[in-house]
Amino acid sequence: MEYNYSDFIGQIQETLTTNWDLDALTDYEGTTLQYKDVARKIEKLHILFENAGVKEGDKIALCGRNSANWSVAFLATLSYGAVAVPILHEFKATQVHDIVNHSEARLLFVGDLVWPTLDAEAMPALEGIIYIPDYSLKVSRTEQLTQAREHLNEYFGRKYPKYFRKEHVQYRSAGSEELALINYTSGTTSNSKGVLIPYRALWSNVEFGREALGDKLKRGDHVISMLPLAHMYGMAFEFLFEFLLGCHIFYLTRVPSPKIIFKAFSEIRPHIVISVPLIIEKIIRKSVLPKLQTPSMKVLLKLPFINTKIREKVREQMVAAFGGRFYEIIVGGAAFNSEIEEFLYKIGFNFTVGYGATECAPIISYADWKEFRPGSCGKAAPRMEVKINSSDPHNVVGEILTRGANVMLGYFKNPEATAAVLDKDGWYHTGDLGIIDEDGYIYIKGRSKNMLLGASGQNIYPEEIEDKLNTLPYVSECVVIQKGEKLYGLVFPDFDEAEKAGLDEEGLRAAMEQNRKDLNVMVASYEQLSGIRIMQEEFEKTPKRSIKRFLYENAEV
């Protein structure tokens, strides 16, 4: 597939100089950097790298919560010629140590919450650890680095004796196949792998953003960054695309609870919203659905004329809750609950569901909300092909394969894992299962690794059963597992709702048994649950809020 790659680093240089006096990055309820401030900070970090002996191709790791300074350090790393290694700050300390060591990083930028948990001795090859909030040195193991940091302002002043201006922003160029970053997957099924992302994949994802939303977003528009910057989804579509467009990005520096999100949306009023299903579902379940589920409201919803009026009103409330001026909400990163999706579609809410993978940096498919079809995740993105590996792709579920400009180079130092997912024709085997309709819309049915085999050889997709179970009373989240030939549901209940309904432990157990019976009416005989076990704690999740299923495969029932 041919494409006209334009230099990604050149686009960073261009946005800095074109949008020099515009606001660029804001830590919500904190400080704001304009594009010229970002350029100046990048230049200082370049001087630091140069005097510390960092060479092109060296690895620089970043681990901290979203912030303006995190983004500056990332941009400085790429534009200098080093390879960025973003690490999710939710990872446990041992995982961070392992990734820093495995990636052969020379420097580590570390955030305020992460730093106290780490042990510098566990990362012996690091030459220095730099504190993200103020770029101070936490650890220096070379005289060069210590000197460079101590004299940084002096070096900067000597290089730019008058003052730092637009024309001083001169960066190297990056080839399309050159390595930009190593992104370690969150690992819902196994240990993390280092995904090698070339510049063409970053460029192609940003280009896709321009093609899909370039006429909907403009310079100076607002976006809220809620997803981790160290995850490809948040990095590509809540940072890089908007930054290169000249937008103003606001970082929610704390955990995005519904309360904080509502406040931020009403004040910032973003022009586009990028989210994972869990955040949207929580807001709807807590603030919208309860109002619709009163007896009188249920009666009204059944009346055709009032029904439309109510739906319009609900839609207005939903739009207002997200700030009132966004073009659409793009949901991705995990499966959407079908009940919520159907509800949003019915009220004509401007949302769409996309599909991607870290290995595609991340976009694979998308459709504008006006063309969205419920249950699907859009059509193949520009410069990407998608096919289903099955005898009848329209009707028979098969593995989803994709190839094109977004696909990774492979896994770092792991040729076996690379060979297992990238075939000789360039197709990336996603491990996801689905079908594709005659118009090219993709429908995901589950992950091949999660697929269970029924007693008579039937393919069972636990996600489809979980989706139905999640719609039943008092179910907050669930996992379906197999024991021998039987299926069981592990359920973390909504204890608040159960308490409101006056249910004690015995009552909740009875409610779950009723749920089991109701569910078994909805599913095929080979998909029926033999029992439900109530979990006392939330399931452990990856940073993109997918349940780490592999931790529960052997749970007692």
Describe it.
The protein is an alpha/beta fold and 557 residues long. It is built from 17 helices and 27 strands. The strands form 8 sheets. Strands 4-3-5-6-7 form a 5-stranded mixed β-sheet, with helices on both faces. The chain has a 4-stranded mixed β-sheet with strand order 2-1-11-10, sandwiched between helices. A hairpin with an 8-residue loop joins strand 18 and strand 19. The longest helix is centred in the middle third of the chain and has 18 residues, at 304-321.
Classify the fold: give the CATH topology of the largest domain: Rossmann fold
Beta fraction: 15-25%
Ends: how far apart?
50 Å
Unreliably modeled segments:
none
What is the number of helices?
17
Tell me the total number of β-strands.
Answer: 27
Q: Share of helix among residues?
A: 25-40%
Number of domains: 3
- Helix/strand/pairing category: alpha/beta
Taken from the alpha-carbon principal axes, the silhouette is: globular
- What is the alpha-carbon Rg in Å? 25 Å
CATH architecture of the largest domain: 3-Layer(aba) Sandwich
Please describe the biggest sheet, giving its number of strands, its sense, and whether it closes into a barrel: 5 strands, mixed
Summed over residues and divided by their number, the pLDDT gives a mean of 92
CATH class label of the largest domain: Alpha Beta
Arrangement of strands in the largest sheet: 4-3-5-6-7
